[in-house]
């Protein structure tokens, strides 16, 4: 385990600092591509230059980079959405890529009522600590801000661990969760 100057691990979340950098996005994209291999899956959200720019400018709180003593060890990524788009995605009428494209054009922090728990990845030796859950909760709380809403969460888990993690996120927040099968 990496230690800081005092011999302790220091885990930080980019959402706590209120700013996301191009370096952060590049690091989370590399981790995502390495684990999820999106380039081979045309129906999933690509880590394209266009999408990275959109995230950096419009929804930076949604890509939460998790670091241990300054080194990227994982990330969480959420997408503000609405119930109509969510329902079409969950019923397989649109792909994940189409969901993201629609959200980019129609959804803002002021008009969402659902949140897609899109992806998370934590390096193996840091798993089992609830870091993905903490990362998602921090991002969700940031984008909700002072609004009095209780958005529906939804996800398309790719692993058993991912399914457990999104369920725990919803449970901790007290929000309803829908899963794509």
Question: Can you walk me through this structure?
Answer:
By secondary structure, this protein is an alpha/beta fold. Helices cover 42% and strands 20% of the residues. The chain has 7 helices and 6 strands, in the order βαααββααβαβαβ. It has a 6-stranded mixed sheet, with helices on both faces. A hairpin with a 2-residue loop joins strand 2 (63-68) and strand 3. The termini are far apart.
Main attributes of the structure:
7 helices, 6-stranded mixed β-sheet, single chain, alpha/beta, 181 residues
Question: How is the secondary structure organized here?
Answer:
Elements: E1 11-13, H1 14-17, H2 22-36, H3 49-58, E2 63-68, E3 71-81, H4 83-90, H5 96-106, E4 114-122, H6 131-144, E5 152-155, H7 160-173, E6 177-179
Parallel strand pairs: 4-5, 5-6
Antiparallel strand pairs: 1-2, 2-3, 3-4
Helix pairs in contact: 2-3, 6-7
- Average pLDDT figure: 90
Q: Using the CA coordinates, give the radius of gyration.
A: 16 Å
SSE sequence, one letter per element: EHHHEEHHEHEHE
Strand tally is: 6
What overall form do the CA principal axes indicate?
globular
Structural class from helices and strands?
Answer: alpha/beta
Residue stretches low in confidence (pLDDT < 50, at least 5 long) are: none
Task: Give the percentage of residues in beta strands.
Answer: 15-25%
Oligomer: single chain
Tell me the strand order in the biggest sheet: 1-2-3-4-5-6
- Tally of DSSP helical segments: 7
Gap between N and C termini: 36 Å
Biggest beta sheet attributes? 6 strands, mixed
Helix fraction by DSSP (H/I, runs of at least 4): 40-55%
């Amino acid at each position: 385990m990496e230690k800081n100057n005092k011999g302790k691990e220091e885990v930080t979340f980019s959402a706590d600092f209120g700013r996301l950098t191009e370096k952060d996005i590049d690091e989370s994209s590399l981790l995502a591509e390495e684990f999820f291999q999106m380039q081979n899956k045309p129906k999933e959200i690509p880590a394209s230059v266009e999408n990275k720019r959109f995230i950096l400018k419009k929804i930076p709180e949604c890509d939460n980079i998790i670091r241990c003593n300054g080194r990227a060890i994982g990330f969480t990524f959420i997408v503000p959405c609405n119930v109509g788009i969510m329902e079409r995605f969950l019923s397989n009428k649109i792909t994940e890529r189409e969901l993201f494209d629609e959200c980019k054009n129609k959804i803002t922090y002021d008009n969402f009522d659902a949140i897609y728990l899109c992806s998370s990845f934590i390096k193996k030796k840091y798993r089992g600590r609830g870091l993905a859950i903490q990362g998602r909760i921090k991002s969700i709380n940031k984008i909700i801000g002072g609004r009095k809403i209780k958005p529906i969460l939804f996800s398309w888990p790719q692993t058993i661990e991912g399914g457990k993690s999104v369920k725990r996120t919803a449970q901790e927040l007290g929000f309803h969760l829908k899963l794509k099968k």
